[in-house]
Amino acid sequence: MGQLIIHVDMDAFYASVEIRDNPALRGKPLIIGSLPGERGVVATCSYEARKYGVHSAMNIKEAFRLCPNGIYMHPNFDKYKAVSQQLNAIWDSYATASQKISLDEAYLDVGEQAGNWEGACRIARLIKKRTLEEVGLTCSVGVAYSKTAAKMASEEKKPDGYFEIPTPDDFVRLIIDRDVSVLYTVGAQTAKKLHAVGINTVRDIRQRQEDVVKMLGKHGQWLAQVAFGIDDRKVVPYRPQDAKSIGREVTFQKDVSNYQLLKDVLLLLSFCVEHRAQHVGLSGKGVMLKLTYSDMKSISRSRTIAFSTNSAVSIYREAVQMIDMVVWKSARLVGVGIYNLSDKEEGQTILKDLFEDGDQQETERKLLLDALQARYGLDFAGHLTQIYQWDTLHKTVEYMRKHFRE
Prior knowledge:
Blueprint: E1 5-10, H1 13-21, E2 30-33, E3 42-45, H2 47-50, H3 60-66, E4 71-73, H4 77-92, E5 97-102, E6 105-109, H5 111-114, H6 117-135, E7 139-144, H7 147-156, E8 162-165, H8 168-175, H9 188-196, H10 202-207, H11 209-216, H12 218-227, E9 245-256, H13 259-280, E10 282-293, E11 298-309, H14 312-323, E12 331-343, H15 344-354, H16 359-376, H17 384-387, H18 390-403
Parallel strand pairs: 2-4, 7-8
Antiparallel strand pairs: 1-6, 1-7, 2-3, 5-6, 9-12, 10-11, 10-12
Helix pairs in contact: 4-6, 11-12, 13-14
């Protein structure tokens, strides 16, 4: 017997949670993300909004043009994380291994618990039933022999869907005459390259494997395999230490031309990175800076450091040194992060040697927060836990932008 894999994907997750909690929103075009008049994008939207052409990652101004009568809301990530924990408790109870892709999506290896194909299908239906009854939300579920096929199956009958793909032959029959974009990892640019040389369908990939490999290298080899239904990847549980980086960024509602204000925002972002990194027990040996200017040109800078850190003070210090070296002009976005991640203990040991049990770090931390309070009149030290939240961070940054004083 091959693998027995279930892919679970919630239907318009953020929007569905808000509709569950406020039934008056049901049946209306609901858009979660930035608000009209703000800079930003759509995080997700209800299926009623999708009928107008609105979709995730769309610029909010375009979404408002398409759907001016929609209901627009900021996301509430704390609420969505809490719901996600409820969902995972249900899903994980049936799986030997569970690979979380996001708050609302996961691959489950149910081979051991299911025993056979019929058992896997029973589990899939149970997951749908319990998710609705216990959390009040619908999900789309795919059951298949591989991860690629399971994901394809979950998308086949959305929303509130259920679909089975038992074998590679079933998978191939389903997709062979569909556009190449149906395959996992084929984005708009890859599809455009393939279309340009007459490779339009999955059948074309199968018939012109050598051309695909020559054009796309290892990615082409992968696509050639998947076009024949071959995917032996295992369900691998996500571990925080597998992350490549931890970062935070913010988009200003109006371009920022004041250098000190930008540094102040970098400090808040550094505290957000510290909070996330310490929560998962990781530190980084590199710090990265991201800037998007008012003309939409983006730059990134990075540097390795002598010690592993998850300290906001250290992250901020390195980020400021990098920003001091770039050409300065008005910015619409700034971000900071750490990379080359490792276990937290290494960073703690070295920082202890460097900063005398952290006394110097704590002193500098207090001075930086006091300076922020003096400039903006806000108790940053007492409200950091709230600032870590997406909505509060953005509101705080906008307040700082409007009330900045030297």
